[in-house]
Write a structure and sequence with these properties.
binds fe (ii) ion, 39% helix, alpha/beta, Protocatechuate 4,5-dioxygenase, Chain B, 9-stranded mixed sheet
Length: 330
């Protein structure tokens, strides 16, 4: 059975891609940004997923105002980098996983989420920049470390999907992956954001307090995040801050029990707040297994059991306090 083992949230600022492509990553301005992803690259290499699902938005590269699907899943064997005005980025062609992608499409559509299926699609910086940040710089003649299934979400033309719809789609994707018979370890990315506005009188807007609350609630209370209306994203996080709803698809696919294992936040990169988080799934034993082990416990008075559990709780709390989330801020 395939399984989603972790989620990665990452901004996909185009200027980050330009800094990589033009060998400017060691410049002090950019080093501050890239240094926050060194641990992520180590994590990805160690985790070695079989497939990545990357939720991103197309920036008028594969789609235009003529045709914008709300959710478009890539089921092709490969996805070339799009020409975004300066020629295609010098990165490898992304290899897809058409079998798993087709299975996800069938499963979520029958689960009442109507996807557009793309059998031919170019991908832009929305997808390839987070890939570089977490998988490293790759030249066009190299390979990305694993196949990728792109999921493009419309956040560029009103109306984008709601946060609730995104969270529910993530849950449907989890059900789809878990019904795929092959043993695959899958990582899902949510990309975009964080707070930014690229035009108009509020151009350059960044709201770090909003961003940090959003990152905190990804683990603590994603349902609360799913109730945020579009207008709040616009007002608090800027016109392009709406990209953050895509992170809720990633979060929904992780299930209820997650552990934040890494976070990075810095401002600015270009005129955008850069946010990054890694969460691993922490599945609990199935209820039936817990019941059967509870039945095997020797009889004891309720008071004795409570006292024993309190005594055990202290070292557990101490261990939890010692195990801090690895966070980097600059
Ligand atoms: Fe974007």
């Amino acid at each position: 059975m395939a399984k989603i083992i972790a989620g990665v949230g990452s901004s996909h600022v185009p200027a980050i891609g330009a800094a990589i492509d033009n060998n400017r990553t060691e410049e002090p301005y950019w080093k501050r940004v890239f240094s926050g992803f060194e641990k992520s690259k180590e994590w990805f290499t160690k985790t070695k997923p079989d497939v990545a699902i990357i939720v991103y938005n197309d920036h008028a590269s594969a789609f235009s105002t003529d045709l914008i699907p709300t959710f478009a899943l890539g089921a092709a064997t490969e996805f070339p980098p799009a020409d975004e005005g300066w020629g295609p980025r010098p990165v490898p062609v992304v290899q897809g996983h058409p079998q798993l992608a087709s299975h996800i499409a069938q499963s979520v559509i029958l689960d009442e989420f109507d996807l557009t299926v793309c059998n031919k699609m170019e991908v832009d910086h929305g997808m390839t920049v987070p890939m570089n940040l977490v998988m490293g710089k790759k030249n066009p003649d190299e390979h990305w470390p694993c196949p990728v299934i792109p999921l493009a979400v419309n956040v560029v033309m009103f109306p984008p999907p709601t946060g609730h719809r995104c969270l529910m789609l993530g849950k449907a994707i989890r059900r789809a992956v878990e019904s795929y018979p092959e043993d695959l370890r899958v990582v899902i990315f949510g990309t975009g954001g964080l707070s930014h506005q690229i035009s108009g009188p509020r151009a350059g807007l960044i709201n770090s307090k909003w961003d940090k609350n959003f990152l905190d609630n990804l683990t603590k209370d994603p349902v609360k995040l799913s109730k945020i209306p579009h207008i709040d994203y616009m007002r608090e996080a800027g016109a392009e801050g709406i990209e953050m709803v895509m992170w809720l698809i990633m979060r929904g696919a992780l299930g209820d029990n997650v552990e934040e294992v890494y976070r990075f936040y810095t401002v600015p990169a270009s005129n955008t707040a850069v946010g990054h988080i890694i969460m691993e799934t922490r599945d609990k034993p199935k209820p039936s297994a817990r019941k059967s082990s509870a039945r095997k416990k020797p009889a004891a008075s309720k008071r004795a059991v409570v006292a024993k559990s309190k005594a055990k709780a202290k070292p557990r709390r101490a261990a939890a306090a010692a195990k801090k989330v690895d966070r980097v801020r600059s």
